[in-house]
Structure formats: C-alpha cells, structure tokens
Design goal:
The structure holds 3 protein chains of 3 kinds. Chain B is built from 8 helices and no strands. Chain B is mainly alpha-helical. In chain B, helix 3 packs parallel to helix 7, helix 4 packs antiparallel against helix 7 and helix 5 runs antiparallel to helix 6. Chain B is globular. Chain B starts with a helix and ends with a helix. Chain C is about 80% helix and about 0% strand. In chain C, helix 2 packs across helix 6 and helix 7 runs antiparallel to helix 8. The chains are: A alpha/beta, B mainly alpha, C mainly alpha. The interface between A and C is large, with 51 and 47 residues.
Chain lengths: ~210, ~240, ~260
Amino acid sequence: MPSERLEVENLHLWRGERHVLRGVHFVLGRGACLEVCGANGSGKTTLLRTLCGLIYPEEGRVLWNGENVRRDLPAFHATLAYLGHEPPLKSDLTARENLHYWIGIRRQLVAEDLTAALARVGALPFCERQVRTLSAGQRRRVALAGIALLAVPLWLLDEPATNLDAEGRDLVADLICEQLARGGMVVAAVHQGLPPSVGNVTRLELAA
Amino acid sequence: MAWTWFHRLASPPHVYALAARLTPWFAWPAALCIAAGLWGGLVLAPPDYQQGDGFRILYVHAPSAWMSLMVYMTMAIAAAIGLIWRMKVAHAVAASCAPIGASFTFAALVTGALWGEPMWGTYWEWDPRLTSELVLLFLYLGYMGLRAGIEDPQRADRASAVLAIVGVVNVPIIHYSVTWWNSLHQAPSVMRLAKPAMPFVMVAPLLLMLLGFTLLFVALLLTRLRSEVLARERSASWIREVVSA
Amino acid sequence: MSGLESPATRTLAPVPTPLVRGASRARAARSADAIEAARLALLRDLQLAFRKRSQLIQPLAFFAMVTLLFPLAVSPELSRLRELAPGVLWVGALLASLLALEFLFRDDAYDGTLEQYALSGQPLTALMFAKTLAHWLLTGLPLALMAPLAALSLGVAPAALPGIVAAVAVGSVTLSLIGSIGASLTLGIKRSGALLSLLTLPLSLPVLIFGARATQLAIHGAPYLAPLELLGALAILGITLAPLAAAAAVRINLE
C-alpha cells in the first residue's frame, strides 16, 4: 500500500435545516488514527457516513489517494470497512455463518481465516450459536472479527467499544493498534476518547 | 456562459421572484382561452348529430385527460432533473405538479362519468381511457403518499423521484395492456370521435380549451411552486428579506 | 494462537500477527467477483427463510384462504367458479406476493446488513437482483406450484393446469421485481403495508391482465401462448430495469 491517504476538504452538510458538518477538514496518512469526538447529535455518525460516500455533502470533497471518491465509489468501498452503531448481523444465523456471508460477499474466504478471526476476538465459545441468543457485547465482538477479516486499509468505526467490558475495550484498542501497525488507517467516533495504548492519534472535535 | 441561466434556475430566491413575475402572463391568457373555448364549445358549436348536446362535456373532459398525462410527464422530467443534478428547485417543481395533476385526473374521471350517464345510461364504463385515467389517479396518489410517508424531506424528494420515473416507464405499458384487455371484452366505445369528421367549428374550441388548460397548469404550477419554495427555504436568510420587503 | 484459548488467558502479542496468513493472504488480494457475491446473497436469503419456516408458509396459506373465500361468498357451483377462476387465482397471487414483500428488505434495513451490501464494493444492482430472485423462489414459484390445486378446487379441468402453472410462474417473476422496487422505496416508513400496496398494485396491472387472460385461455383449452409471451416480455423488461431502480431506492434510503 504505497501512498494511501484520506483527505477531507471543507465538508459542509445540512440535514434539513441543521448545519451538521461545518467545514470538516483533515488529512490522514498511513498508520494514523483519527479520533472524532463530540456530544450526542454533533454529527459523528453523519461524518463517518459521509466519508463512506453514503451521504452526499453539499460542499467539500473526500479524497482517497488524491482522487475524489465519487469518481469510483465501488472501488473506494472495496478499500474500507464501516462498522455502525448496530453490528450488521442477522439474528437467525450463527456468528460463523454471518461472517461467512458478510465477508464472503467482499472477498474470498476460507474456514481457517474465520476460525482465526473468531478466536482473536474471543468469540469462539459462542460462534456456533444463533446471534439472537448472544448479548450485545458478544455481537460486537463478532462484528469486530468481521472488520478485521476484511483486511482493508481504511477502517471507519462508529463508537466501536459500545457494550463492551474493560477487556473488550482493550480488544478494540489492540485491533486498532494492529491495523495501524500494518500501515492502515482508522477513523473512530468515540464518546470518551480511545484508550492511551493507541498511538499516533489526532483528535477532531465536532461541536453540536 | 450559457449555463448561467441554468444555474440561476437552480437558485430558490431567483426562481421565487421569476415565478411571481411570470404568473400573470399565464393566468390571464389562460382565463381568456378557457372563456373563449367554453363559449365556442357550449354556445357556438352545433349539437353533434349522434349525441346531441351531451357531447359538449368533451370540452372539459378531453383537455383534463390530456393535461393529467402531460402533468405526469412534467413531474417525472422535473424529478429526474432533481435526481441527476441534485437541484432542489426541480424537486420543488415535481412536488408542486402532483396535486395539480391529480386534480386534472379527478376532473377527467368525473366528467367522463357525467358524460357516460346520458350516453350509455351508466355512470361508469370500464372503457380503456377511463380505466387508464383511474390507474393514473392511483399513480398520483401513490406518489403523494410516498412523499408524505417519508419524514426526511431530501429523502422524500429523491425516493418519490425514483417512483415518478418508474411510473413514467409503466404508463405506456399500462395503457397498452388496458386497451388490449378492453378490446377482448367489449364493442368499441362510443367515446371514440373520428377526428377528420369533426368540423372546424367543433375542433377550434377544443384546441382553445387545450391551450387554456395548459396555460392554467403553468399558472397553477408557478403559484404552488412559490409556496413550495417558501416552505422548503423557511429558515434561509433571503426569506426574511422577501417577507419584510 | 490456538482456538482453545479462552479470553482470560489471551495476552497481547508483542508483534501484531496478521489475521490473514500465508496462502490465504494471496487470496485476500483477490476480492470476490460480482456473480459470487450475488450467489452468496441469494444463499443467505434462502438460508434465512428456511430458519423462519413459519413466515415462509404464510403467503401460501393466505393464497389458499383467498381461494376458499370465493366459493363461500359466491356459489359452490363449479361452472360459475370456473368463470371466476382466472380472477381469483391472480388476485390471490398478487396479494400473497405483496404479503411476502415485508420481509424482503425490511429486516436487512433495520439490522444494518443492507448498508453493508451498499458498502461492499460489489454492484448493488446485482445484490438486489439476488434478493429479488430469492423472493421469487420463496413466494412466486411455490405459488405457481400451488395454483393447480386452487384451480382444481374451482372446477378447472386438469388439461388446463400446465398453462396455469406457466402463467403464474412467469407472471410472479415480474410481481417480485415490481415488489422489490416498492419495498426499497418504502424502507424508511414504518407500517408501510397499505402504501406498499398502493405503489405496487397499479404497476402490476399489466401482469394481472395478461396473466388472467392466459389462464382464461388455458381453462377454455385455447392456445395461450400470446399472453404468455407478453408476460415473458414484461419479466425480461423487469429483470433489466427493476434491480437498478431498487438499488437506487436503497441508496436513497441509506442517505
């Protein structure tokens, strides 16, 4: 991954009459993490979804490797992993089956990779149960396994440590560190900030 | 250079002012044409040899039916422009067209039913034109229902734009299938008027009414558009200037 | 890192170990292609439907109920029912197909999996086509196989049955496609059942007209190829255009 950069220039976005994003501007290089902080309703989720290309900003651009992502959105999507508030899991499938479909649609996958990822997040004990029987924290662990499995340079995480205990929060920090060490990039929306074990962090404050 | 008028058309304050200026230019000629057409159709034109005076309702029915289709096309084109170029004003135009088009469709149905009674002895006949009009009414109602059902205004604009485009593709298919269905089941409808056989004195008021209805549509559209723009931009600064002026 | 490690004994590795190792790393560089993605999406929806078998049966039970209503409401005379049969079968099929649309996209929109489809880098049109195909396999095709039973109960001669199965099978393809557009448009609306019907039924009228005509001709023993071909043409038009419209509607509702 030679020169991957995420640049955001002067993003302005209105939701109805609210000016949610007011001139958001940053550059993220390899191995860097951006922590997006702000109170509820300050636009953290909106910013992440605009970075994904799901929302179209009224002004400003998102650039990946110097090119406007709008020019080839599917190619951009292939380089990112987005984790929203809810873990994207079907409750009637098991954790393993969920990952098989979710990740399999995006890249070729073998069973060993699935098992390794589930083990990494500590989800092996419950990976053969239907997701409807899992707690919120367990579901989030499975979702994190999926994000890591995607093996993409850019991670966009919306409050990744929600519903996780202290050990789970450490897991999130570890996964982010590993991603950064591989030369990847992470943009994480958080309430209270990432744990200090994550290095190379820039903060972006969004005012409500 | 040539694009500046296009860009200005995309600006709500400009469109608001333009609509205000243009409305009388359509409203008065519309009134004149409709008055002249009604006079020509109701007074001047001789009674039809087959249907007597009952055919005169054609002078309201035919333009209404024609306009109901034209308005749907306008709505779909405006919606497509709004969808592709992300112009808020185009979406406002589409939103303004819908109730006007639905009203024309309703008028066409009512006048068709009123015509049916003296002609066929029944208020409703499943002939292809009336049935197509009824389906068109449901298409309008579906469009307005979708707009009303989605809370986020931008999403409502864009989703209903997709629906309008899908509808426009379907309208010829529906019309063809309804005509085909009808041809299997009934004798040709009495409503068919052979155009070459109509003398000028009967056709002229019809054309006048058609022109008048078109001008009426534009006048109504411009008026509704101004309210639509006002409602959508209610928190913008230019509104305060306009209101205080 | 063995699979038997419990979370309590996991230690922080000094060097980050990649989750994708060795030979599979080469595979990771190759993303799945669109057809593989569509195949997985189809399999997923089929597997999900079979986990909730009770929900799967409901549209078919509804179709059977509707067929039962007419003899009770009109007359038990088979000759009269035979005249009504095309209408009963097709109105029943139309309404049953509508019922099944609810779970086409709704759950996916709520749990975020539809969003992941839109972000997968795969053509959303292909994924929507896969979902619609799943809907047809789970609703339209079973309806086509049930239609002979309903037709027989309405006094239709057995010779007409192949024509009826063909007509319902082909027509229900278009019904699923039109339904997918309506379902995608109303994703964000709660309790959208009535609105979904209002949007879908007018667009489904051509299918109803040609389908009922084909069924009627089959019942009377006349050649029914012409309306069947028209149904096929509608299906092809739908396959080409409907997934595009559905994908556009999904993206709009994700904004």
